[in-house]
Amino acid sequence: MPRADFLTALVLLLVALGLVAEGWRLPGAGGLIEEGGEPGRVPIFLGLVIAALALVLLVRAVGQGGHRLFAGEPLAPERRRMLVRAVATAAGCAFYAVGLLGRSIFGISLGYGWLTFGFILVFIVIAEWDLAPEISARRRRAIESRAPAAAARIAPRLAFVPAAWGPYAWLALTATLQAAAVAAVVTYVFEQQFYVTLP
Predict the structure, then answer these.
(1) Does residue 112 sit in the same domain as residue 41?
(2) Do residues 100 and 31 share a domain?
(3) How would residue 71 be classed by pLDDT, with cut points 50, 70 and 90?
(4) In the listed set 73, 106, 121, which residue is the last one of a domain according to the structure?
(5) Quick one: 86 and 136 in the same domain?
(6) 157 and 101 belong to one structural domain
(7) What separation in angstroms does the CA of 198 have from each of 4, 75, 108, 111?
(8) Which of 26-30, 97-101, 128-132, 141-145 has the lowest mean pLDDT?
(9) Consecutive H or E run containing 105
(10) What are φ and ψ of residue 68, in 5° steps?
(11) Cβ distance 21 to 15 under 8 Å?
């Protein structure tokens, strides 16, 4: 655990530095100097808070020997898989944030809402694919118990799906609903409540 804390603290420090740097680039030196520079205040203060907490975590992890990343023992297979998943997740998130947002793809400029919807949908499907039979059965039971009318309307529309693919159809359906809800709510809150222009 100390090693995980050490690595997490380093990542959080990088994120915090990025937030502060971006905040200073916004109007009014991050909103701290010039009135009307409010967009910069949030990333700067969030970055400072995250940096302070990350430093506490880093000091604690170093005190417990977490900075000794490799003590000579090989990584167990499960830990290796966890590391691969963590790196893949970080790479996917970085690609979404840096490679897609605000960019034009094949001459088509997709808005924040659509890109966020696509990213969350793909992320959920990939993350839950192996667990789809277990998760989809649990979600189907939850929908049937909490909203039987909705379940009765959904089931006939999925009747054409072969039984072996049923869990994956439920996964795709629930992932689509979750991605649409998150993308819509986040876009609305930031654009209509915080008056932030999203890429």
Answers:
(1) no
(2) no
(3) low
(4) 73
(5) yes
(6) yes
(7) 33, 41, 16, 8
(8) 26-30
(9) strand 104-105
(10) -85, 85
(11) no
Q: Distance (Å, rounded) from C-alpha 41 to C-alpha 49?
A: 12
Q: What is the mean pLDDT of residues 100-110?
A: 79
Structure tokens at 24: 């200073």
Contact 2/59 with Cβ under 8 angstroms?
no
Q: Are residues 66 and 122 in the same domain?
A: no
Amino acid letter, 49: V
Q: Which amino acid is at 5?
A: D
Instruction: Report whether pLDDT(31) > 60.
Output: no
The amino acid sitting at 108 is: I
Assess whether 82 and 147 both reside in one domain. yes
Written as six digits, the tokens of 113 are 């809402």
Domain count, the chain: 2
> Are residues 6 and 61 in contact, defined by beta-carbon separation less than 8 angstroms?
yes
179: domain range? 76-199
One domain for residues 52 and 107: no
Q: Is 195 left (phi over 0), alpha (psi -120 to 50) or beta?
A: left
Q: Of 126, 135, 102, whose CA–CA distance to 179 is shortest? A: 126
Environment class of residue 47 by beta-carbon count within 10 Å: exposed (0-12), middle (13-18) or buried (19+)? buried
CB 115 within 8 A of CB 96: yes
Domain boundary among 40, 73, 106: 73
The whole-chain average pLDDT of the chain stands at: 82
d(CA 107, CA 87): 30
